[in-house]
Design brief:
InterPro entries: FAD-bd, FAD/NAD-bd_sf, FAD_aromatic-hydroxylase. The chain is of the alpha/beta class. The protein folds into two domains: about 200 residues, FAD/NAD(P)-binding domain, CATH 3.50.50; about 160 residues, D-Amino Acid Oxidase, Chain A, domain 2. The protein has twelve helices and 18 strands. It has a seven-stranded mixed β-sheet with strand order 5-4-13-14-15-12-16, with helices on both faces. A hairpin with a 2-residue loop joins strand 8 and strand 9. The radius of gyration is 21 Å and the shape is globular. The chain starts with a strand and ends in a 16-residue tail after the last helix. It binds flavin-adenine dinucleotide. The site of flavin-adenine dinucleotide has 34 residues, from helix 1, strand 2, helix 8 and helix 9.
Amino acid sequence: MNILVSGAGIAGLSTALDLGVRGHQVTVVERAEHLRVNGSPIDVRGDAIGVTAEMGLLDGIRAKRVDMSERTRFVDRDGTVIARVPNEEANDSADDIELPREDLTNILAAALPPNATIRFRESIDALTEDGDGVDVRFTSGGSARFDLVVGADGLHSRVRKLVFGPESDYLRHLGLYVGLTELPAEDFRADDIGKMYNYPGHMAGITGYHDKALGILLFRSEFLDYDYHDLDVQKRIVTDAFAGHDEWEIPRLLTAADADPEFYFDSVSQIHMPTWHRGRVVLVGDAGHCAALLSGRGTSLALTGGLFLAEELERAGGDHTVAFDHYEKRQRPYVEFAQSTVDDGGNLLVPATEEEITARNTRLVSRPGKNAAGQGVSWSR
Ligand SMILES: Cc1cc2nc3c(=O)[nH]c(=O)nc-3n(C[C@H](O)[C@H](O)[C@H](O)COP(=O)(O)OP(=O)(O)OC[C@H]3O[C@@H](n4cnc5c(N)ncnc54)[C@H](O)[C@@H]3O)c2cc1C
């Protein structure tokens, strides 16, 4: 079949790979001008580990393993460590594979067969379906017809908006926003990695891997209405959110964010939809069921979804109606579990009040025998 995938994130790339190796002609359109490889390390967990084995990628993924979660600790305004988190709050099991988002993205892209290609700086402008196919007009001006369209274009999916309606019908804001920036290489200090500082409703942290340091700026906020494509607006929102605070490394993180052309900013939100397919269009990954970074499972869901979709299409002999139904039945239990796990993460990482920060630290410090190991929690995956 001739299949269009919108978005070259983990969901789009894994779907393109799983479809491509089964002989489909796959075109991936990605709005950015290159693969978006920034982001903190992510986790491959549970059945997603088996999925990467089926894709032939498990050894390559294991080779890129990092242990950032296990080095994370909370500090006070002077940078003194005041609490560490036991490992069981960081990982589901010892089998979890934590690796840089950049490595997983590159591994998937490198594994694409020749019949799966990526077109950068391209996006779907409009699509019209008839019984036999989908006519797509691209923002670059061209158009083409496809048998199926897969929306893998993330939390603010264009495909979802075009086919299923406005984002507001499906988005559940969890009350947090996150900014992420790469710190300048000349500033790198290994000892910074894994430190998190809180004041009420805010968390500033430094994570990283190898010789790369990433600044994290998390804060509590009501839902904000802003232009997702306007980077300057996003930087201003973060600067305003941390205004008046120059303790710990906050000024350094804000300066780095301001100078970063790849600055990542988004709401911590979930997408809840009664169905992920309509006619010849189907959603995979965050586009259909974002679980929010606090779940630690968005990447695993993207991996299972891509494989289930491709397998079901093969099993149904190309009957997309049957395949989409089966894909959804297999994927939904994973999504429901992931989406149900988020509550505690927000309270752990961004306590709302001074009392809650103190209570969190006391709880962590008083867990006998656990905090001494120097283990920590991953702020996101
Ligand atoms: C730059 C970046 C950094 C991230 N960092 C983290 C992190 O540190 N921690 C964490 O937990 N999660 C992070 N995430 C989210 C995480 O990658 C996802 O939750 C998970 O991997 C599922 O991925 P996805 O492919 O469904 O969505 P996404 O990772 O959001 O990928 C969607 C892709 O679609 C592209 N796209 C969007 N709109 C269009 C359009 N109209 N046309 C074409 N392409 C489009 C985007 O540029 C992106 O490449 C990040 C996402 C991005 C894009």
